[in-house]
């Protein structure tokens, strides 16, 4: 322990008090940061859940789009790919009839 000099404290005691005050201030800042991080984490979790739900919606829409009725151009491309000749002026239904059944 340090010796008291007169009425005041020794230099060592004064420096320890200052250091203690700094540490308490740092501890308070850390606690405030922790609270802010916890709040931000909750927000991010909620955002993540919303995004995951949106992904499910978009994947469902993608399946619908992929299952959609093919266009005349799609049918013509498929017929060309299969090497099947067709009339360029044929209707969509006529082109469908030329495609082999899957």
Strand composition percent: under 5%
Tell me the span between the first and last alpha carbons: 93 Å
- What structural class should be given to the helix and strand makeup? mainly alpha
Q: Name the poorly predicted regions.
A: none
The averaged pLDDT comes out at 86
What characterizes the major β-sheet?
Answer: none
Q: What's the Cα radius of gyration? A: 38 Å
Number of contiguous helices: 3
SSE string: HHH
Overall helicity: over 70%
Count the strands? 0
What spatial form do the alpha-carbon principal axes imply? rod-shaped
Describe the fold and architecture:
With 102 residues, the protein is mainly α. 73% of the residues lie in helices and 0% in strands. The protein has three helices and no strands. The chain is rod-shaped, with a radius of gyration of 38 Å. It starts with 10 loop residues before the first helix and ends with a helix.
